[in-house]
Automatic annotation (TrEMBL):
Residues 1-113 form the DUF4502 domain. InterPro entries: DNA_repair-scaffolding (IPR053054), DUF4502 (IPR028026), DUF4503 (IPR028032). Pfam families: DUF4502 (PF14950), DUF4503 (PF14951). Residues 265-651 form the DUF4503 domain. It comes from Chaetops frenatus (Rufous rock-jumper). One of its GO terms (biological process) is regulation of establishment of protein localization to chromosome. This is SPIDR protein. One of its GO terms (cellular component) is nucleoplasm. It comes from the Eukaryota. Residues 174-195 are annotated as: Disordered.
Amino acid sequence: LCRGGLAERLCRLQNRERSAISFWRHQCISDDKIPSDKSGVLIVKILEIFEECTIQVAICQQLEQSPATLSPEDAVVSAEEPILKVLFTKETAAHLKSRPQDVIHIYPPWQKLLLQNADVPVIMNTYFSQKVLLSEHSEARQKTYGLTNMLIRKNIISLAQTFRLDDLDDKLHQESSDNQVPCAPQTHNNSDSKQHPLALSAVNDSLLELVESQGAVGWREVQVLVVIQRVYCLPAREGYRSHTPGNKPLLSNGGMFCRLCLLVQDAYGMFSEVQLQSLSSTDDIEQYCRRWEGKSCCLAGMKILQRATRGRALGLFTLIDSLWPPVVPVKVPGQSQDSEMMTTNLPPPSFCYILTVQSGEIHVEVDEEEQISNLYQPPAVHGLKEILRMDGCNKRCSFWAQVLYRRLQTKHSVPVDQREMLFVTDSTLQNVVCGIPKVVAVSVTASCVLSVEIIEALSAGSQLVFFKDALWGNGRIICVERTVLLLQKPLLCSAAGADLSELTGPVRLDELDSTTQASSVCALRGTVVGVNESTAFSWPTCNRCGNGKLELCPQDRELLYCNQCSEVVTTPVLKMQLEVFLSCPSRSQSTVKVKVCHEISVALFVLLTMLLFLQTYEVQSVLGKEVGLLNCYVYSVTSHPNCVALEEIVLL
């Protein structure tokens, strides 16, 4: 806040006001009596209560004196005494817990507002208020209302009604029993145990209207009906577990705790991200996607964590843009809902509320038995060939691909959060003659949460993986936050005419040529023209766990021992590495250096001349040898000197 500005002065004034109210209430509680000074005190008796725009409005009748000095018969007010409309803030109403027939003392500085064309004066600034009851009345009221909850009528008024944007036919104030909500949590009998605890509260269909009427602090009494468009996980902030004690994280992404999130949309097209907190770590994100996406759900007990805009949450809005415009006409505030609404001309949302639950309990009620909502937009699945030809930047895309190779980038030029690389292909790339690579790289950022099932599956071998809502831009595919990797294709997805047939034959890589770039994979053939003897070495590894640090067995110095397995290694696997220089017709002007890595059994070691020449053969015996198609990873391409450095790889 600017020093000395209006905002800073207002903030100080509000802080002083809150302090004064808290001090006054504390003093009343400590003294356990009504303040003795009665000058300027307004005494009213509540006749009716309703709520409007988070303000509690009480229709009251003014009393000349406190009922404490009257008999119960005299406390009944006559119709001749003036009627007042008293306004209580949300905090004051929660403190008073008023009901009809309650008597309230309102202490200065209250103010009376006289409105034009209105006979009932309005009483404001009622912060210093206290409820007063006769002792016998208190006992009777406690018996009468102790086990019941009074319903307070809520007049939900939208901005469209405030600024007269509605049709003239529409009624300005719609008051019905559907808008009545309990002022306290509902209590249920055993016979109603099957009924959801939120079933008796009011249901709204507008996220924005609910935020306007309930405020940013949160709402408990009402709920909003939305459609779940996407289910995904986000990495939790540091300290996330500390302020939610007892809550178990859903997944662990490399030691980073994650939370389940929902991207929901209401009947007006408004989006909101709901961040859930208390889910068991054994729950599977893939199961939640299958069970919840496309279903309607009711949200309650939410509070606003952040109001996100495009400039502050670009990743969130790229996902929202992929779901815009809506597939069915949506409601438009301020217009009649009877007419057919066009969805193509609606501007995309410019902000989105990020919601979270107010406590450890989940306040999301999903009807899994219900049919898929018409508002739901399943992911549009494209072939990789079509994605590579897409125009624009920062567009979400979904595809079904075979993961061939997984690599962790270690170069300093690669951003730290994009070190994981997956090389994938599909039938649309394998069938291409030229012009488009047969294998593309997909970067996986640290913010993209990979489930334990995905990590284990990729470690085991090549897998068909469904990439949902990946980001395409600047010629790259990146898995960012809100991207989901699944082993099974969703039940509902839009193929849009793409060729999604599975691979039938062997996978082919692009051969090394002048267009090959660094951080890609290719196939290589050529003639050996040199060997770097100084970098060649070999080492034995455990055939069970792959441990490369074997020791001599203490009992038998001729055997090897593995500390990780705590067993003798009788058949170690020998790993060898050397660098060879090749002459390749496709890169005749370049020096092609290949790091050849082999993993062989010791029993077969003597059969591989290529790997034994350093010990029993001369280097000249391998020069001029033809090298067949090797699968390689290109880790550098330089022009000065003109050199291509590759490393032999084994595809999954």
